[in-house]
Design a protein that fits this description.
Length: 251
């Protein structure tokens, strides 16, 4: 088992940044999970607050944890291209630095909590052929509904997504899901969970209804007792990685 902290200059962000990689003991065609942090977190959050490193070793799945600040993993209208960074540059970089990480889509997954759940589903639905599974834990999946919130949030929302009245379809998971379905794209397994005490519960139920309208999409939706908190996300990550491991074993 190894934990690597990479510092490097991102060509897309045009600045120095960092990510963590938890590497299990396996060293050949190692499956990989790209794991995203939430709005108030950073690339260290999963390592500091969950047992991600232990789950990587137990399942034999490497975990890549990039930094995305408060970007919602989006190409911001005035700011950085974080979507291109996490969806294109991070997978390419980690494959170059760790050549034994699997590049086969059947051995690649993406997941995240809250803001990161949104980012994970956005990456998976934008590039559905590149991933076997995508996970959202307490995801902020209906970002249109978040345009009005606590004081100061509306201005930040505009900085991330632009004017709510001209919201871009590539930032809308509901649009991306419908578009991928209509194109007949091979969609990854969509694994969605939310706690019953979480303030984003209705947000998640709305996305579940969209999934239920497309019955051919392979999904799992789970609600269980829990709030917007690390005890809940740690449990969900453990269960998700076991599901990813089972999915790989079927291939």
């Amino acid at each position: 088992m190894a934990l690597c902290h990479l510092h490097f200059k991102s060509e897309i962000l045009k600045q120095d940044t960092a990510l963590f990689v938890a590497l299990p003991s396996t060293k050949e065609h190692t499956p990989v999970l790209f794991l995203f942090h939430g709005l108030s977190g950073d690339h260290t959050s999963w390592i500091r607050r969950s047992s991600a490193e232990r789950y990587a070793e137990a399942t034999g799945i490497a975990i890549v944890m990039p930094e995305a600040h408060r970007s919602f993993y989006t190409n911001m209208p005035i700011g950085y291209r974080y979507f291109d960074y996490v969806s294109l540059e991070v997978p390419e970089l980690t494959s170059h630095v760790f050549p034994y990480l699997a590049t086969d889509p059947k051995k690649r997954g993406v997941a995240g909590l809250s803001m990161g759940g949104y980012g994970a589903f956005k990456v998976a639905l934008s590039y559905p052929e590149d991933y076997a599974i995508a996970g959202s834990f307490s995801g902020a999946l209906d970002v249109r509904s978040l345009s009005r919130g606590e004081e100061g949030w509306e201005a930040e929302y505009r900085g991330i997504f632009g004017d709510p009245l001209t919201f871009l379809p590539e930032n809308d998971l509901f649009h991306l899901l419908g578009s991928a379905y209509e194109k007949g794209s091979r969609l990854p397994f969509l694994y969605q969970t939310c706690g019953t005490e979480d303030f984003l519960l209705e947000n998640n139920r709305a996305f579940r209804r969209k999934l239920e309208a497309n019955p051919k999409i392979e999904t799992l939706y789970l609600e269980s007792r829990g709030d917007h908190e690390w005890d809940y996300w740690d449990r969900q990550l453990n269960a998700f990685m076991k599901a990813f491991q089972r999915l790989i074993s079927k291939e």
